[in-house]
Design goal:
Elements lengths: L7 H29 L4 E5 L4 E5 L4 E6 L4 E6 L21 H29 L1 H7 L3 H28 L13 E4 L1 H21 L1 H8 L4 H9 L1
Antiparallel strand pairs: 1-2, 1-5, 2-3, 3-4
Helix pairs in contact: 1-2, 1-5, 2-3, 2-4, 4-5
Keywords: Membrane, Transmembrane, Transmembrane helix
């Protein structure tokens, strides 16, 4: 454990780093599961109990809820290994917004991994702790960019549901329900909330200094850390 302060202060460090790592691993797990999940934008048909799913990583899927079966294919192609029920064989190509969102997702994942590595090195290497601590404000800036990108992702994808532009106009049906799928919510809520919690725990001192919300008692403890 970096530093030389013992007792209560050292216990505080252990809790700080352990809590940060746990929240980061939780965030990363949700974002990976969300990234792999193809249900980002969903078209459901209640009368036939099936749905079309468009994922962020270039995959479209047809899911038959009655049979519990799912068939996926690259969304650059219109045919999977099994026949695709109409009208889903006529879906439009991936929109430009969706393509941009894909790269936003990749940047978020990279920043998550970067903070996880940064935190782990803080925990296990006193030399890294001494070298990197002066750059905590820089790292906080990068992590703030990740939070902003999560918000950008929300702004990009939610309107895609209301545009209803996956199917061509002639195949649209008012009984079809467009919705944001579980894959997006796992990535957005499951990834963002623990990530923000990790930032608050790890960069508490920097955040308090920036917003002038630290009392003298906290400053003494923070400086000892």
């Amino acid at each position: 454990m970096p530093g030389s302060v013992s007792g209560k202060s050292d216990f505080g460090k252990v809790c700080k780093y352990f809590g940060t790592v746990c929240f980061l691993l939780c965030s990363l797990a949700f974002t990976i599961f969300g990234f792999q999940n193809n249900a980002w934008v969903v078209i459901s048909r209640p009368e036939t109990n099936d749905e079309f799913q468009r994922g962020i990583r270039g995959r479209d899927c047809y899911k038959n809820n009655s049979l519990g079966s799912i068939e996926c294919w690259d969304n650059e192609f219109k045919n999977g290994t099994e026949p695709i029920p109409p009208p889903f064989e006529h879906v439009n190509d991936v929109s430009t917004v969706f393509k941009i969102a894909y790269y936003v997702v990749l940047v978020i994942l990279v920043l998550q991994v970067a903070l996880a590595i940064y935190t782990l090195l803080f925990c296990i290497s006193s030399k890294f702790f001494q070298l990197a601590e002066p750059f905590n404000y820089v790292m906080l800036g990068f992590m703030s960019v990740a939070v902003v990108l999560w918000i950008v992702l929300f702004v990009l994808l939610v309107p895609e549901v209301y545009k209803e532009n996956i199917l061509p106009d002639k195949f649209k049906n008012p009984e079809y329900n467009y919705s944001i799928g579980s894959g997006f919510w796992k990535f957005f809520c499951g990834g963002l909330i623990p990530f923000v919690a990790a930032i608050i725990i790890f960069f508490r001192k920097q955040l308090c200094n920036m917003f002038n919300c630290c009392g003298k008692d906290f400053e003494l403890v923070a400086n000892s850390n």
